[in-house]
Here is the input.
Amino acid sequence: MTTAALQEDTPGKRAPLVLGHRDFNAVTETVAGIVEKKTTPSWLVLLGLAVSVLLILLGSLGKLAAEGLGIWGLNNTVFWAWDITGFVFWIGIGHAGTLISAILFLFRQKWRTSINRAAEAMTIFAVMSAAIYPVFHVGRVWFAYWLFPIPNQMSMWPNFKSPLLWDVFAISTYATVSILFWYVGLVPDLATLRDRAKTKVRSIVLGIFSLGWRGSHRNWLNYEKTYLILAGLSTPLVLSVHTIVSFDFAVSIMPGWHTTIFPPYFVAGAIFSGFAMVVSLMVLARKAYGLEGLITIKHLENMNKIILLTGTMVGYAYAIEYFIAWYGGNEYERFAFINRAFGPYKWAYWTMWSCNVFSPQLFWFKRIRTSIPAMFVISIFVNIGMWFERFVIIVTSLHRDYIPSSWTYFRPSLFDISTFLGSFGLFFTLFLLFLRFLPAVAISEVKGVMPQADPHAGHGDDHGHDAHDDHHEEASAKSDESEDEGDEGEEASEGDAEKDEEESRG
Amino acid sequence: MDKAHRHEELEEEAAKPFGLMGYFLTPGELMHACEKLKNAGYKDFDAQTPFPVHGLEKAMGLPPSKMPWIVLTCGTVGLLSAIALTAFVSFDYPLVISGKPSFSYQAYVPIMFELTVLFSAFGAFFGLWGVNRLPMFYHPSMKHPSFPRATDDAFFVTVEAKDPKYDASKTRKLLEELGAREIVEVTE
Here is the structure.
């Protein structure tokens, strides 16, 4: 499209974040156009496919509730397998959304604006898919409310010393905060859609959900502060969630799980797998909806760099686990790790290594980093590899117990497989509905990072009316690529933004 | 007759001016206009923009947001609730695990953290709508014929009639000088 812009990839001279959109209205048209145009047959076909897979999930869960956990391939030795693997897999995928929406926001990474909306939606749907597992793997799902400290006739309380209960709190908090954060971001865009609505019903529905937002600067002031606070809350939250997920393993004394590196290692892995999922989805969505000008190669390349970084971190963690197993001198720990690499599950272990550590190394080459087919394939590999990572951690550590007589080999049953596949149905159903009915790109945020948005840049407008402000004037660039933006103005406010955040955290 | 009279009353009611509204096409012009309005001594004026224009609050002379205090309060309540919950449960149903004391607060740190974040987030979310007085499904500024552009690509400024300095003709003249387009007096 505009490779010239990408050639200017020198530090200090940044490639523009928005290509081919001359003015604010063009951004509105592009994003709102997706939601406003007629439903396409291809979308309907995809939705039908996703819903059929979702029905597989509902059927599997129905059978599980009716018959109990015996329908899965679990046995006495391997009491956790595909259920918790699926849970950690989905939670991990969710983390990239929060990273993009919160952490990159705190780091003032402006390129996040085009992808944060879809990534946050992905987070919420991934957490929903993840939540299925802990709820249903308790077996008698109608007692799932025991997980919460609700006064009951047995006068019993949950065990607050258990990481599994910390997990309940972490996941439910994470889901709630993600939804709130997402909705706060959506309100101004829903107001944009409301003001463009052609039908009465549409304008009433959007009017209700946009809460009568009118873009008043008094509101924006509080809005931006709240957004910053929510980002500041989400950042430690997202790190805590996967830390606590890793505590499910690390707090036990099981060889192979009993490792202090788990929290950072899990967080890096989560961000890694999440970004891979974002890349997989964005590559398809930008093509399908003509969003190439908003989600540029530059955005995808940045995400690939993060995949490369976190993939290498994960590789380091794999290696250091090994070293520590040897260095710690515990024979059970040593056995667990040797067994991982050379035991009956070695195929899974080496799949994990090649998908997670070796395949992202290709992103060192700019040509691969910026090639759509290559990044799509690698991102799929990473998703597969990250599923295997959790599988390896969970199943290989369990399947050979302390007593050789209780050694087993876990094989998934049909329902293990159908439940996991079905969870993709839930995820994609929700994601397709999101793409169809909600603005997939944060309209107001993207406008805010366009060069015209800087009040100190005296851009002319398309009515030939000159901006006569007392700041310096620049010639307006009416080409497809505007000049790079001066983000110095933002840097200055960073200091007090951080102060506020400290304040808000208490 | 009675009907006509009531109709007249309604007319009067409706004709009460809310303020003068006009718009600009660049954030720079809007900022400039807000600075000028502030310097001219106006207090009750507002800008309506499709995205937050940075630095506009300084140009308008707005006080800083109160949100951090709301969130701090809610977060503190969350932390105290978590401590109360875990302490109560430890003594109400003691679980002796590897001889550790009932109230092992170290093990409750994750709970305390999560509830602090949860309460803070609720505080931020509901506080935001409370402070902004939303949902507000009707606002006089929505009557401006070009209002839909406020959420698209136009930068509105509204000088409200309740401002002591407000004067329909003088204010209009000032806005015209600043280069505002489509200056309309919107009614309540």
Summary: Chain A has 17 helices and no strands. Residues 1-8, 459-506 of chain A have pLDDT under 50 and may be disordered.
